[in-house]
Amino acid sequence: MKNMNVTGDRLWDSLMEMAKIGGTEKGGCCRLALTDLDRQGRDLFVKWCEQAGCTIKVDKMGNIFARRAGEDDSLPPVMMGSHLDTQPTGGKYDGVFGVLAGLEVVRTLNDYGVRTRHPVEVAVWTNEEGSRFAPAMVASGVFAGVFDLDYGLSRADLDGKTMGEELARIGYAGEEEVGGREIKAFFEAHIEQGPILEHEEKTIGVVKGAQGQRWYEITVTGQEAHAGPTPMARRKDALVAASKIVTEVNRIGLDNQPYACATVGLLNCSPNSRNTIPGEVFFTVDFRHPDDAILSRMDQELRAYANKIAEEGGFDMAFEQIWYSPPVEFDADCVNAVRTGADIAGYAHMDIISGAGHDACYINRVAPTGMIFVPCENGISHNEEEEATPEDLAAGCNVLLHAVVERATV
Ligand code: HGY
Ligand code: MN
Ligand code: MN
Ligand code: MN
C-alpha cells in the first residue's frame, strides 16, 4: 500500500460543517435520532458521499450504506462507520467522527486513485444513542440479528412516536433488508469519551472490547396527598422511596470498583407539584461492567434492594430490565490491524476497553470488527464541551485508512 495520508483539514472542515446542524450555543450538538435535524445531517452525509462517487442504500431500519465500488463488486465489503444521532447535550464528535472519518477514507482513496479489490462502505447506524428511543444501538442490533425488525420499528419515544413512524416521516424508511449479508470486516473510529488516552498521552486506543451493559426502567407508585395536612408517618412518598433506590444504585457502583459504572440519568416525578406528595416516580438505571458475572451480581443486588424498599413501604413497583448487552471482545486480527496501523504511522498507542457501547459491539457478532479510539479533551463526552484535536482525529483516520485498505486489498 502506498504511504497514503488522509487530508486532516478536509476531515476537520466536514466535522465543523456537520456540527452546524443542531449546533447549540455552548458549542455542542443536539440531533436526536429521527428528528428533522437528524434528517438534515443524513442528507448532508449522503450528498457528500454521492459527490465522492458512492452509491447509497438505506435499509428498513434507516441504516445508510455509502458504497465505493471495488475491482470485484461481488466480494463482501469492508465497512466503516458509526452514528450521526447525538445526545440532547451532545458534542461534535461522538459518532460523527466515525462516520466522517469513513468518508475521508473514501475521499483519500479517490485522491490517490486507489481501487481496492473489495468494495468499501461507510455506514450510518440509526439511533445509536438510545436517548430518544431505547435501547441504544437498536438498528445495528437489528442488522446483527440481536433484535427482530418489528421490535426495532416499534420502539417508541416518551411521546409514543415509534421509530417506524419517524423513519417514514423523515424519508429514511429504506427498502433494503436489514443485515443478512456478508461483511468482510467492520472498523469504527470513535473518540474515547473517557480520560485514559489523554492521561497516558497516547494518540491511538487499540480497542480490545467493550464492557457489558444492563438498562432498567423502574416505576415506584405511592400516594399523592397534600404536603400540608398529611402527617409524615402516614405518607407513601414515591420520591423518597425512589431516592433510596437511586442511592443504592450509586452504592452498588462504588462497591464494585474498579470498572463498575452505575447511573440514574432520567427521572420523572409525578405530579411534580411543590405542595403535593409525589405519587409516582419513573426512572432509569444504566449499569456497566466488563465482567459479566459482576454485572449480573449488580443486577441481583439492585433487584433485591428495590423489592425490599417496595415491600417495607407498601409501594407498588414496576421493575423492568429493558436491555442487556454482554461484554464484547473484538476480533483479534482486526485489533492487530489497528495496532499495526498505529505502529506504521508512528502513533503512540495503548490497548483499551471501551466504557461506552458502540454499534461495533453488535456488528462484532456478524463480522470481524475492530475499533480505533482517539483522545477527547478532559475525557468529556455526552456534553456540549466535548472536544478533540484536528491532529488526533487525523491520526485516528489514518489508522482507519490503513486497517481498511489492508483488509480490502487481500
Ligand atoms: O451509552 C452508550 O454507551 C452509547 O453512547 N450509546
Ligand atoms: Mn457514540
Ligand atoms: Mn454516545
Ligand atoms: Mn506497538
From TrEMBL:
InterPro entries: Amidase_Cbmase (IPR010158), Bact_exopeptidase_dim_dom (IPR036264), Peptidase_M20 (IPR002933), Peptidase_M20_dimer (IPR011650). GO terms for molecular function: hydrolase activity. Keywords: Hydrolase. It comes from the Bacteria. Residues 210-312 form the Peptidase M20 dimerisation domain. It holds the Pfam family Peptidase_M20. Gene3D superfamilies: 3.30.70.360, Zn peptidases. The keyword Hydrolase applies. PANTHER family: ALLANTOATE AMIDOHYDROLASE, ALLANTOATE DEIMINASE-RELATED. Belongs to the peptidase M20 family. This is Zn-dependent hydrolase. The lineage of its organism: Bacteria, Pseudomonadati, Pseudomonadota, Alphaproteobacteria, Sneathiellales.
